[in-house]
Design goal:
Blueprint: E1 17-21, E2 25-26, E3 32-33, E4 52-55, E5 58-62, H1 69-77, E6 89-91, E7 94-98, H2 118-130, E8 135-138, H3 150-157, E9 164-168, H4 180-197, E10 203-207, H5 229-249, E11 255-257, E12 260-261, H6 266-273, E13 281-284, H7 300-307, E14 312-317, E15 322-323, E16 332-334, E17 343-345, E18 358-359, H8 368-389, E19 394-397, E20 441-443, E21 449-451, H9 453-462
Parallel strand pairs: 7-8, 7-19, 9-10, 10-11, 12-13, 13-14, 14-19
Antiparallel strand pairs: 1-8, 1-9, 2-3, 4-5, 5-6, 15-18, 16-17, 20-21
């Protein structure tokens, strides 16, 4: 879903961020805790950090963040109802949001957490926390654009009050994995980045780029990836060096992850076959109303269970909030169907005009009611999967704001005009897949946000789902 061709790979550390927040715990008495309400004055203990573990399919998080177990014992002693760090790991479920707040008139923002973009992330972080987001996924940080991200990381950590943990990535295209020289260059960059931030309390781990599996050799023999040894050997050069950076920087518990295109788990199966050096698999999934439908062979959760025993996170899911009033005349989005899915009927039709686009109405044959249902149903399935056997550890809704440039990354005019796409996609409530219309918030020139009803729907669903 994320267009990657327009990201600029820089010689320095281009990083994307996945952030996780709001991790609570349960005291032995049943009392609900946040991490540690307060710490001694600066200098009494070393700077805090947070540890993570992978246990089977689960991502676990420490409820007492600290730099070491000895310091954790001291921190635990400050509260009679908190056990020392070594025995306090909690299973963690992600209520996530994809975050790429590109302004009207601009191409993709390669560093949305940079100091030069502070007016935007300072606007958004409190709003994200208020709706119950405990994770954000930011696709790129280019230190040559918008300046350093240190202040944003500090704001995400928030003095340990509903902290937001960060996963960095250095963006690169899939073809780099055909070249050992390119892989070695990237491995050095990942190592340096991870070593620098290993003990930062906001850091959760690192993703190995985004959507670097754009083709399937089973159906496209010329693509060469991701079903050959060269691809995975080069992938592992990067992934192993990334993990070593965390270890050498002082915290080997940080996680190495992916963020891959959903190809019916073909890439995941090949990664398992070739020994991909990842702690967590991330998949960008767009299968309509949900992830699991009765009687269908393409059951995502069944595919995951049959392919891996590692944790899996859905790194993108969602649906467009725009529709084509003229081109979709005669269509009705019906849900739920007998198998639990939704579909526009009658199926198919001529391609849409890109100028035939408008916000979906609240009600009607094609409406926001259908998209609100998708939000509710997909999140309910994610949570049920986690509670049943941990088959997924949550997901990131795509996305926080509309991005007008995504309608056509190669056309500068699309940055200033809110167009649609021509695709007819009957599995979604809009009967379309308009790249520039996925936001929970609509945007316009300036910095104002216009929240859609899906924001409130998602907030209400998450409020009923404890994340530890």
């Amino acid at each position: 879903m994320r267009s990657v061709s327009n990201f600029v790979r820089v010689a320095g550390l281009a990083a994307c961020v996945l952030a996780v927040a709001g991790c609570g715990g349960t005291a032995p008495s049943g009392q609900q805790l946040s991490f540690v309400p307060s710490f001694p004055p600066a200098g009494t203990l070393p700077p805090v950090e947070t540890d993570f573990d992978v246990v089977g399919r689960d991502i676990e998080i420490s409820d007492v963040p600290t730099t070491s177990e000895s310091a954790a014992t001291t921190a635990g002693a400050l509260q009679s109802n908190v056990q020392p760090f070594a025995s306090r790991k909690l299973k963690f479920f992600i209520h996530g949001m994809d975050y790429s707040p590109t302004q009207v008139g601009q191409p993709v923002n390669n560093n949305p957490l940079g100091s030069g973009n502070a007016a935007i992330w300072q606007r958004d972080i409190p709003l994200l926390r208020a709706m119950g987001v405990n994770a954000i996924h930011v696709y790129n940080v280019d230190p040559n654009v918008n300046g350093p991200i240190d202040n944003a990381l500090k704001a995400l950590w928030n003095n340990n009050s509903k902290p937001i943990f960060v996963v960095f990535s250095i963006h690169f295209g899939a073809t780099c994995l055909n070249s050992t020289g390119c892989a070695n260059d990237l491995a050095t960059q990942y190592y340096n980045l991870d070593k620098k931030y290993a003990t930062n309390p906001a850091v959760l781990g690192v993703t190995i780029s985004n959507e670097i599996n754009p083709c399937n050799q089973a159906t496209d023999p010329q693509c060469g990836i991701p079903s050959n040894a060269t691809y995975w050997n080069n992938f592992n050069i990067i992934a192993k060096r990334a993990k070593q950076g965390f270890a050498d920087g002082g915290d080997k518990s940080k996680l190495v992850m992916t963020s891959n295109v959903d190809d019916n788990n073909y890439t995941l199966s090949q990664g398992e076959k070739f020994g991909a050096a990842v702690d967590v698999w991330g998949i960008n999934v767009y299968r309509g109303r949900g992830f699991v439908y009765t009687g269908q062979t393409g059951d995502l959760f069944a595919q995951i269970r049959a392919t891996t025993t590692k944790p899996v996170v859905i790194t993108e899911y969602g649906g467009t909030a725009g529709w084509h009033p003229k081109g979709s005349i005669g269509k009705t989005y019906k849900y739920p169907l007998s198998d639990g899915s939704g579909a526009c009927q009658p199926a198919g039709g001529l391609p849409y005009a890109i100028t035939d686009i408008a916000p979906m109405p609240a009600t009607g044959k094609i409406s926001m009611a259908g998209l609100n249902d998708l939000v509710t149903f997909s999140n309910t399935q994610l949570y049920q999967g986690w509670k049943s056997d941990g088959v997924v550890s949550g997901g990131f809704y795509f996305e926080w704001t509309d991005e007008w440039w995504k309608q056509n990354p190669d056309n500068p005019a699309a940055r200033s005009t809110h167009w649609g796409n021509a695709n007819v996609v009957d599995s979604y409530p809009a009967c379309a897949r308009d790249e520039a219309w996925y936001g929970l918030n609509a945007i316009s020139p300036g910095t104002a946000l216009a929240p859609r009803s899906t924001l409130t729907t998602l907030k209400n669903v998450w409020a009923k789902q404890p994340t530890t």
